[in-house]
Specification:
Rossmann fold; 267 residues; binds magnesium ion; six-stranded mixed β-sheet; alpha/beta; binds adenosine-5'-triphosphate
C-alpha cells in the first residue's frame, strides 16, 4: 500500500498540488484520472521520487519514503517498475536489450539467468517472437508491451504507468489494460495508472482517484461512478450526450437488476 499524506508540490510561485492525501491499495489497479494539467504526472513523479515534495509525506507499506536515508530509498526504488508516458524505449537497442537494461543495472545474476528472465517477461506480454526487433520495427501497442516487460523484469512490488494507452486504438488499449490488471493480481502488486481513457476507467477501475486542479475531487470505484452525484466528475467522465445517455441506461439496468433480485428473494 502507498499512502500520500498531505503532500504539497509547486514550482516556484506556482502551486500544483496544494494538499493531497490518498491511498493506493495493494493488489489493485489504482487509477489517477483528471483533465490535462490537473497534476497527475507531477503526483506520480513525486510518488516514485523523481520529484521532491515540498511538504507532507509518502509511505510505502508504512515506511516513510520521504524522510528515510538515501540507501533505504534506493531499496524501495528497486521495487518500483515504471512505464513512462510514450514508452521511452531505447531506439538503438533491440526489444530484448531494452528489457535486459534494468537487469544489467541492478541484477547480479549471470548472463544466462538474465536472458532467461527477459524471455520469461517477453513471453508474459506475448512478444517472444519480437525479441530481436528494434523499436522502430514494431507497432505502438507492441512498444507499450515491451515497456511493461521492462517495468516488471525486476519483479517490482509497485508498478506505475503514466498514460499506458495514449495513442492506441480502443481494442489494443483494452488488451494493455487487461495485461496490467492480470499482472497486478498475479503478483499482488500495488499498481498506479494515470489515464484519460474512459474504457480503462470502466474496465479496470478498482480504485479511482479523480484530480481536479491539483486537488483530489472524488475517490471511489468504477461502480460508484455510475451513481456519483459529483458534478465535476460527471462533467469529466460523461462529457458527451452519448455517454450521459449510456450512464442513465446503466443506472436503470442496475436498479431493475436490484428490483429483480428483491422479488426473487421474496418469492
Ligand atoms: N518541471 C515542471 N516545472 C514547472 N511546471 C511544471 C513542471 N512539470 C509540470 N508542471 C506543471 O504542472 C501542472 C500539472 O502538470 P502534469 O504534467 O502533472 O499534468 P497532467 O495531469 O499529467 O496532464 P496530462 O494529462 O496532459 O499528462 C501543469 O500546469 C504543468 O505546466
Ligand atoms: Mg501527464
Amino acid at each position: 500500500m502507498i499512502e500520500l499524506v498531505n503532500i504539497k508540490k509547486g514550482f516556484g510561485e506556482k502551486v500544483i498540488l496544494p494538499d493531497v492525501s490518498a491511498v493506493m491499495e495493494t493488489g489493485k489497479v489504482n487509477l489517477i484520472i483528471g483533465s490535462s494539467g490537473s497534476g497527475k504526472t507531477v503526483m506520480m513523479k513525486c510518488m516514485v521520487g523523481l520529484m521532491e515534495i515540498d511538504g507532507g509525506k509518502i509511505l510505502y507499506d508504512g515506511q516513510d519514503f520521504t524522510n528515510m536515508p538515501e540507501q533505504d530509498r534506493k531499496n524501495i526504488r528497486r521495487q518500483i517498475g515504471m512505464l513512462f508516458q510514450g514508452s521511452a524505449l531505447f531506439d538503438s537497442m533491440t526489444v530484448e536489450q531494452n528489457v535486459m537494461f534494468p537487469l544489467d543495472m541492478f541484477s547480479t545474476g549471470t548472463l544466462k539467468e538474465k536472458k532467461a528472465r527477459v524471455m520469461e517477461c517477453l513471453e508474459r506480454v506475448q512478444l517472444k517472437d519480437a525479441a530481436k526487433k528494434f523499436p522502430a520495427e514494431i507497432s505502438g501497442g507492441m512498444k507499450k508491451r515491451v515497456g511493461i516487460a521492462r517495468a516488471i523484469v525486476l519483479n517490482p512490488k509497485y508498478l506505475f504507468c503514466d498514460e499506458p494507452n495514449s495513442g492506441l486504438d480502443p481494442q489494443t488499449s483494452l488488451l494493455i489494460d487487461k495485461l496490467i490488471k492480470e499482472i497486478t493480481h498475479e503478483f499482488n502488486m500495488t499498481t498506479v495508472i494515470n489515464t484519460h481513457d474512459m474504457n480503462t476507467v470502466m474496465e479496470s477501475g478498482d480504485h479511482i482517484v479523480y484530480m481536479y486542479q491539483g486537488k483530489k475531487q472524488w475517490e471511489g470505484s468504477n461502480k460508484d461512478i455510475i451513481f456519483s452525484k459529483d458534478e465535476k466528475l460527471n462533467d469529466f467522465i460523461f462529457a458527451s450526450d452519448f455517454l450521459r445517455d449510456a450512464k442513465e441506461m446503466r443506472q436503470m439496468e442496475m436498479f431493475q437488476e436490484k428490483d429483480w433480485r428483491n422479488k426473487l428473494k421474496k418469492s
